[in-house]
Design goal:
Layout (H helix, E strand, L loop, with lengths): L12 H7 L4 H7 L1 E5 L1 H9 L4 E6 L1 H6 L1 H9 L3 E4 L2 H7 L8 E6 L5 H6 L4 E5 L5 H13 L4 E5 L8 H7 L8 E5 L1 H10 L3 E5 L5 E2 H7 L6 E5 L8 H4 L4 E4 L11 H17 L11
Parallel strand pairs: 2-3, 5-6, 5-10, 6-7, 8-10, 8-11, 9-11
Antiparallel strand pairs: 1-4, 2-4
Helix pairs in contact: 3-5, 8-9, 8-13
C-alpha cells in the first residue's frame, strides 16, 4: 500500500461517484450506500459480499490496520485518500477517516416471513432517519428477528439512519417499502400477534406483561414521531398498547418507547410461559 494518498482531488471521478451516494436517487439507482466510521466499516467488511470500496486517510489506515485488512479480505477496493477527499465524501461534521461504499442488503419481506420470526419491529411512517436507525439498533439489541420499514417510511440507507444504527443494519434482516397492510397481514398469517405502540392505547404494557400474554410471536408497529399511528393503522392491529408513564413526563420519544416495548417482549418470550404477575406467589 502506498505511503501517500492516491486520491487527492475531490473532483476526481471516483470521489464524485462516492459523493453522489449521499443523495437518495443515486443510492437507489446504483443500489449502493455509504457507511462511515470504523464501527460501520468493520461490520460491512464482515457481512458477506457487502463492502465494495473503502476510502481511508493515511492516519486512519494506520490506526485501523485490522479493518483495512478485513476490507481487503472481503474483496473491497481500498483507496488511500487525502483528508479533504474524505471530508468531501463524508456526511458528518467530523469525519473519522473511513468511508465505505456498500451494496444494498435489505431482505425480501417474503424471506422474513419464511423464517418464522418471533419478534419484529414494523416502522410505519417513521420519517426521521436518526429515529429509524436507533429503533433498528434497539431491535437488534433486544434480539428481534427482523425489522420492516413501510413504504411511507424514511430511506433505510440515509446516512443518518446508517450511522444511528451503529452497525446493527448489518446484523438482522430488514425489509423496506412494504405497505403497512401487507406487513400486518403477512405477519398475522404466520401466527404473529400484532401490537400497536401508542401513548393513547387502551391496553397497558404492564398489564399485558402481568397477564402473560406477550410470550408468543409478536410484531410491534411504531408510528410517526409527530402524530403516531392513524386510526386505520391501529384498527389493523390486535391491540393498541401504551407504555405507562409512572412519573411526570408528558411522553416518551419514539426510540425510547420502541426500546421499552421490544425489551418487554424479549423478556416475556424468554420466560417460561411468559411473564408472571408480580402479585402471584
Amino acid at each position: 500500500m502506498p505511503a501517500t494518498p492516491e486520491l487527492i482531488s475531490p473532483r476526481s471521478a471516483r470521489v464524485s461517484a462516492a459523493r453522489r451516494l449521499a443523495r437518495r436517487n443515486f443510492r437507489g439507482k446504483e443500489r449502493l450506500f455509504l457507511a462511515e466510521g470504523p464501527q460501520a466499516v468493520r461490520e460491512a467488511a464482515g457481512h458477506v459480499d457487502t463492502l465494495v470500496e473503502l476510502f481511508a486517510t493515511v492516519d486512519a489506515a494506520a490506526r485501523y490496520a485490522d479493518i483495512i485488512g478485513e476490507a481487503h479480505d472481503a474483496g473491497a477496493r481500498v483507496h488511500l485518500a487525502d483528508e479533504d477527499v474524505i471530508a468531501d465524501i463524508s456526511t458528518t461534521v467530523t469525519p473519522q477517516g473511513l468511508v465505505g461504499i456498500c451494496r444494498f442488503l435489505d431482505a425480501p419481506f417474503e424471506a422474513i416471513l419464511r423464517a418464522r420470526p418471533r419478534l419484529v419491529a414494523v416502522l410505519a411512517n417513521v420519517r426521521d432517519p436518526g429515529n429509524a436507525g436507533t429503533v433498528l439498533r434497539c431491535a437488534d439489541a433486544a434480539g428481534a428477528d427482523a425489522v420492516v420499514l413501510t413504504d411511507a417510511s424514511v430511506d433505510l440507507y440515509n446516512p443518518k439512519a446508517v450511522r444511528a444504527s451503529v452497525g446493527s443494519l448489518f446484523h438482522l434482516p430488514v425489509a423496506v417499502g412494504v405497505p403497512v397492510e401487507e406487513a400486518v397481514a403477512g405477519l398475522r398469517d404466520i401466527g404473529v400477534r400484532i401490537l400497536a405502540a401508542d401513548g393513547a392505547g387502551t391496553d397497558d404494557l404492564d398489564d399485558e406483561l402481568d397477564k402473560g400474554t406477550m410470550g408468543g410471536p409478536t410484531a410491534w408497529v411504531f408510528g410517526n414521531e409527530a402524530w403516531g399511528l392513524p386510526e386505520e393503522t391501529r384498527a389493523l392491529t390486535d391491540s393498541v398498547v401504551r407504555v405507562p408513564i409512572h412519573g411526570k413526563a408528558e411522553s416518551l420519544n419514539l426510540a425510547t418507547a420502541a426500546a421499552v416495548c421490544l425489551y418487554a417482549s424479549a423478556r416475556a418470550q424468554r420466560a417460561s410461559g411468559g411473564c408472571r404477575s408480580v402479585t402471584e406467589s
